[in-house]
Amino acid sequence: MSRPPLVLASGSPRRLQLLQQIGVEPDAIIPAEIDETPHKGEKPRVLSLRLAAQKAGVAAKAAALDDKYKNAFIIAADTVVAVGNRILPKAELVDEAEQCLRLLSGRGHRVFTSVAVMTPKGSVRSRIVESRVRFKRLSKDDLEAYLRSGDWRGKAGGYAIQGYAGSFVLKMSGSYSAIVGLPLYETSALLGGEGFPVLAQWGSA
Questions:
Q1: Residues of the chain whose pLDDT is less than 70?
Q2: Which candidate, 161, 167, 197, 199, has a CA 20 to 30 Å from the CA of 40?
Q3: Is the pTM of this model over 0.85?
């Protein structure tokens, strides 16, 4: 069955794997590089929704330059980790990661992941998922080992739940796939609701 092309606006291997998990293979990957700095006073939920929609728009403009993807569906997502209304960075430096982990140690935090789908007609629909995670109290050895692993690099809040940091999680509620980076139920529902044949591909998997 033929279908419209699909573009994933992310270079994240974990988001690609999650999309493939529900039988959806993007035709192109166009990472959307944007300024992710929060606006003054911006709440974590609002930031996540704004960045996902912005990424979809940037990728759509890039896709339109190629005739093969002019009428593509675009999927973009953004994950924000917060303690209260304090937004934690996507850690790129070891000092940033250490500050995040010390803040998360022994307490709960929220993970907001938004997914935005832009249709071939240019309309955008979004969903946001709020999940809650509680870390154990991290020992000096925990911190040193995790920082040494490099598994935190580029991750919101300085950790990846699908990696070594999964051993820090005492409790979680919400969507595991959203915490990893792409809420699968919401992604499938958005695509299906806009006419993209998600289920039609399962028979040939």
A1: 1, 204-205
A2: 161
A3: yes
